[in-house]
Amino acid sequence: MSGDPSGGHSGPQGQSGDPHDGGQSATPHATLHARHRAVLPDWLAVYYRRPIEITHGEGRHVWDAEGNRYLDFFGGILTTMTAHALPEVTKAISEQAGRILHTSTLYLDRPMVELAERVAALSGIPDARVFFTTSGTEANDTALLLATAYRRSNQVLAMRNSYHGRSFSAVGITGNRGWSPTSISPLQTLYVHGAVRTRGPFAGLSDGEFITACVADLEDVLGQAHGNVAALIAEPIQGVGGFTSPPDGLFAAFREVLDRHGILWISDEVQTGWGRTGDHFWGWQAHDGSGPPDILTFAKGIGNGMSIGGVVASAPVMNCLDANSISTFGGSPVTMAAGLANLNHLVEHDLQGNARRVGGLLIERLRAACAGLDGVREVRGRGLMIGIELVDPGTDDPWHEGTSAVLEAAREGGLLIGKSGAYNSSVLRIAPPLSLTVAEAEEGAEILEAALKTALDTTQTTRSGRSAS
User: Is the pLDDT of residue 13 over 70?
Assistant: First the structure.
């Protein structure tokens, strides 16, 4: 492990304050949390009973305001893709900021053109055009705008259990009720099966039978649609949904149906892009039997913390809008310089290959650690995109309390992870920077194994006490 440049200690130890409130009453951290709650929305979620302020990072580690060091297995929600404080990226940002910070798309922007050229070539989409945004939400909004304008239809197909962003139109197509606060939408959304392999009505089928059943469901849904449908939008591996995915080839089979109807395929690569799955650079490539998607959206990892999102589409689709448009902040010189430096580092150091190798070792280590644990239903994933689905011990019901308990115990052990799931699942999300080493993978697995056992032991003890009383 790298040393703490500020001299902090590893793990959240040495806390002070009232033991009855977790040390919050007497710390600057508690004051910041109170200020946060006073001026920010109640629905703005934060992790941990005692939220932490992350002040700096290096490599795969971050430090909080109290000097505690953590191994980061979540990367700011899959956003720190290569490493914290990557020298090439910080240098590119500094040098570009010293020249000019902002111009907008009304002027030629060399870093934007250069990054667009790289992304277009990597996308796999013929005659590709690239439009940069500031987030994945905005990228998906733009993709929906393009698809509905191109097809002259407001009907959209989406996957059950999906998540596509926070905006009005994005929550309108989100198939996960925990992240969709309103049913009002500018789009008519039709939901199809296929994104969750091990739950739902087709869970007991073989992979081939599963694909056949999902295609039949898609055909049935289209038979009930009135007129044209604009597009199917799908995450190759669902992120917020709990790192669930269909068998390889499902979306290729879907594509054959979509092509017969002229329906566009939007691949939401906000979380799966840039080699995170190890086996492929893009998630859609596990389903490439019928060619690339018509539209691809991306964000998160390409900026390594900078606000970059974007859309790639073939020229006829991208150019279908018949009104003027600009982007004030999308494609800004500083973020584009950061994205170029980050992408160069990713490719030159074969971080996709590292994700495949180290991710493969990590998932097998976690499967071995979880074997026989009553509260673990499944360890799944690809590359450095791994989910551990938890169930209430002795049942097949989601164990939300246990997931939070493991999250807390992992933090106490010096490891940051994420959590997510749907109405019927509760999942730990593991997505470290793609430069993760074998030693760090083993260290994180050890901490996580101990956290799982702590949560299970605590639950068993609590329930035994209740039974005795």
Answer: no
